[in-house]
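Incident log, entry 3
Record: DUF998 domain-containing protein (189 residues)
Problem: checksum mismatch between cached and fresh output.
Input:
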Amino acid sequence: MAAIFSWFLIPAAAALAAGNSNWLTSNFSVAGSESPGSFFLILWALLTGGFFRFLIQRAVSMAGAGLASKREAALTDLALLLLLVSVFIPYRPGKMKLLASVHVALAFLATVLFYLAITSLDLKLYFQYPGHFSLCTGLLGFAIAATAALLVLSGFMISSALEFFLTVFAGLWLWLFCRRIRILKRHWL
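Fresh output:
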């Protein structure tokens, strides 16, 4: 079931949230500021945020003593809350500048917290089992480079292309990470 979400539903939700605007000059907030985009933005936030939370909770419980801290789960809960609040705040920079700024700040902070959580999870297991988690760690390094490239291509704005990449990457990365933990756990028993 996680594979279906990671490979198909999460990318589809992200594509719907991006809408049919130019993905390098627009973003999910702009696409979601008008109907039916607002529905797709909320759907995307609920689907991806809930799924990412589920996979992180699963990774923490599967790894057990290897991930003794519940800090990453708490960071993920906070990120999900900030994301959900942000999509319910209208993004209308021309009419409501303060609310639009709060919307952007919450969405950005949610993304940062979420990526801090998965990076922390990865590094904890990478330092314990470098051969087993080097692919996951390398992919996070790739995500940093791809994020920088997308920022340059979009003129240093948070674009739909960047949001789509970060969403799809996180879904696939978490799916792979949980698979790696499951494989490693078989060797623990």
